[in-house]
Structure formats: C-alpha cells, structure tokens
Write a structure and sequence with these properties.
alpha/beta; five-stranded parallel β-sheet; about 250 residues
C-alpha cells in the first residue's frame, strides 16, 4: 500500500518515514515539501494513505485537499498531522480520516494505523470514496455541498431517495426539517455499505429496515416518527430480498 508524506520539514518527514517502517505492507511512494509538489505526487502515485501537514509554504492542508478534490475524483485516507490542535475541526470538515499531533506519539500513531488497516480490511474505503464519512458512535457526516455538512445518527435515518431531476440521493432523517441532499458522487452501493439495516426496496428508494412496520398494498409503512411517510413502494425485483431480510430480524 502506497503512502505519501507532505511536510515542509525534512526532519519531520524522515522521522515519520522511520516510524512507518515498522508497519508491514506499507511502501513510502513519495514525499513532498510543498503543496504543489504534493498534489502532483498524490495524483501520480494515488496513495492509499496520505500524511499531510496543515501548514505548507504555498497553501494550507485544507487548501491542499480542496485542490485535489477540484482536480480529480481520487480519494485516499488522509491523516492531518500538525502541532496545532485548533485545526482539528476544519480537518474533519474536509473528510480526513484522522488527526495526529506533533511531536508524534508512537501510541497515537499505532492507534491510527490499527484503524487504517481495520477499515481497509472491512472494505470501508469504497464507501468513503463515494462521499460518505463514517464517524465514531454510529454517526454519519453527510456533505451536502462543497462546504456544508450535517452529522446524523445512523439510527435516525429512515429513507434514502434518489432525486432523478437533481441526480442526487437524499436522506430523510429524524431531526431534519427537510431531506438532506447528498453529493452527486454518492451512489446506492456506498449507501448500502454503510449499515446492514439499509435495504434497497426499489430503484429509487433505500430504507432503514429497523423502522419498517409492515408492507401494505405494496407500500412501506414505518414506525414513528416516520409514520407519515406513505409513498415508498416496493419494486417487484426487490420484494423477495426485503421479505427475507425482514424475516431475519
């Protein structure tokens, strides 16, 4: 698995590279000491893991991530590492995987690397690449556009609908006064990979089966607070799988 380190200090690069050497399966594909060079290296080598300093000579780490997103749909695990913890919230708003403070504590790095290997083994990188960022505690961070986001509990989600006119998926969740529009690169496979409770019932609808009360006249009926939803139909190609999943609860 390729790793890239972007930091404006050679000593910091060398120190992190030495620490990463103890983790099997990692290859340091490239390093860079400024943002422009770092972006070129990321797009060339397409690393699985990127360690990114927040303060670079020509741009910030946030600016770096925005440039990569504007230039390419490529995605990788990003660990922001910096001496300043006030960058933590902006980092997570830009969908980084984790945050590491300088000077690097070996136990903190071990924790991050364990999360990285576990997440990859579970196949979670596929859904993250589609625009979903799963947080701890059963929460999802939905990016509704380039800068706005909403943190939603998985248990509060009832229905995902596909809006054909806007060509985006939307999500109906408790506590949200209107459906949240997801980014265009979020597809049904990414949604279904988030949680076992999400089941596709038609070409344009995915439900949280934990809220499903019954199917009456081919319409899904839900427990409160979603009992007012009465227009989710079950497609005939999805009915058998839905019944099987429902019976397994």
């Amino acid at each position: 698995m390729n790793v890239i380190i972007v930091d404006d200090t050679k000593e910091a690069i060398d120190s992190l590279a030495a620490k990463l050497g103890k983790y099997p399966g990692l290859t340091l594909a490239a390093t860079a000491m400024n943002g422009e060079d770092g972006i070129d290296k990321v797009l060339k080598y397409k690393p699985e893991l990127l360690f990114l300093d927040m303060e670079l000579p020509d741009m910030t780490g946030i600016g770096f991530l925005e440039r990569v997103k504007e230039t390419s749909d490529f995605w990788c695990y990003v660990v922001i590492y910096t001496a300043y913890d006030d960058y933590m919230l902006p980092a997570f708003r830009n969908k980084v995987f984790d945050f590491l403070l300088k000077p690097i504590d070996d136990s903190d790095l071990d924790t991050i690397m364990e999360r990285f290997f576990t997440d990859r083994a579970a196949g979670n990188d596929a859904r993250r690449g589609a625009g979903q960022a799963k947080a701890n505690g059963g929460k999802l961070l939905f990016y509704t556009n380039a800068v706005d986001f909403r943190l939603v509990q998985i248990r509060d989600i009832c229905v995902f609908r596909y809006d054909h006119d806007a060509r985006v998926w939307t999500v109906v969740a408790a506590g949200c006064d209107r459906p949240l529009r997801l980014k265009r690169n979020v597809n049904k496979d990414a949604i279904l990979a988030i949680d076992d409770g999400f089941v596709q019932v038609s070409q344009k609808c995915i439900i949280n089966i934990n809220y499903l009360l019954e199917v009456r006249d081919n319409i899904c009926r839900f427990y409160p607070p979603f009992d007012g939803i009465d227009d989710v139909k079950v497609g005939r190609f999805f009915r058998r799988k839905l019944i099987s999943r429902y019976n397994s609860l």
